[in-house]
Structures are given as C-alpha cells and as structure tokens.
Amino acid sequence: MATTNYTHSFTVAATPEAVYEAITRVTDWWTIHTDGRTEAQGDEFVVQFGDVHRTRQRITEAQRGKRMAWHVTESYLPWLKDREEWKGTDILFDIVSTGNGTRLTVTHVGLTPNVECYTQCEKGWDFFIGHSLFKLVTEGAGVPDTTERTHMDEIGHVRPTNA
Question: How confident is the model at residue 161 (pLDDT cuts 50, 70, 90)?
Fold first, then answer.
C-alpha cells in the first residue's frame, strides 16, 4: 500500500506574508470552534468539529512568510477504530515565492492511504485547504466549519456545551 503523505498545493497572487497570516487565522478557514493561540512557535490550540473530531496541535515551527508546522499532540476521532489516528502526525505549511505568485504546499505527514481516515480526511483537507484557505487568501473570507458544537473532554466524552 502507498505511504505517500497527504499533500495539497495552490498558487495565489498574494505575498508569502499574506499567505502565512491567513494560515494563522484557523477560525477563518478550518473551524470556528478553535480554542487557543494559532500564531507563534509554542502556541497550542484545539480544533473541534461537532462530536466527530477533536485534535490539539502545537506549533513547532513558525517562519513568517516561509513555513508553519503543527504537531498533533492529542487526537480524538471517535468514528475510527484508532481514535488517536492523528496523534503524532505533523501538518506542514510550506510557502514559496514563484514567478506566478506564492505557492502554498500543505503536507499532513502521517496521513497516508494506509490509514483508516485517509479517504474522508483527504476530502476534508481538500475542502478546507483547497477551497476555504484559498478563498481566505484570494477573497478575504474562508468557509470554516460552523457545525453546532458539543463539548468533548480530553478523553472524548461528549456533552452539550451548556452542561
């Protein structure tokens, strides 16, 4: 089975700094349900999609206009056999200035075709990177997830947000 990591790229007529700044605005392109800081090395944040996805990322590299790297430190994906499938993976945002604009390449290291969530996660990343983040950079507004939020604690127990 192939072991190629998930990758998605696009080129935009924007500066590398503008692309980098858009990446840091996670609530504007991935999900409005983001808690924590998403800008500098050492920042940690949690993203949640309803009751089907909760992950904690730590920014391990932040080079303005060049690269951002997130390390997934916690993962709760209850629809998978391995609910911690993303734990220990890395999400890399590489930014390069080209003759045609700025090229962003996103690689999710560890998200390969041989893991259970690959097909669904590939579709999700294609939308959030290829459509939502692209729109944020090119039009000023992304299309983040706004699914009604429940609260998942650190071990994945779900309860309504008002509980």
Answer: very low
In the block, which residue shows the tokens 């932040």? 62
Delineate the domains of the chain, giving CATH numbers in brackets: 6-141 (3.30.530.20)
Residue 146's identity, in one-letter code, is T
Cβ-proximal residues to 65 (8 Å cutoff; 6+ apart), any chain: 15, 16, 17, 19, 20, 95
Strand partners, 74: 56
Tokens 């080079």 — which residue? 63
Non-local CB neighbours of 6 within 8 Å, separated by 6+ positions: 107, 108, 111, 112, 118, 121, 122, 125
* 59-99 tens-digit pLDDT: 999 999 999 999 999 999 999 999 999 999 999 999 999 99
Token representation of residue 19: 């692309």
Q: How far apart are CA 104 and CA 134, in angstroms?
A: 9
Contact 76, 55 (CB under 8 A): yes
Q: What tokens does 27 get?
A: 């609530």
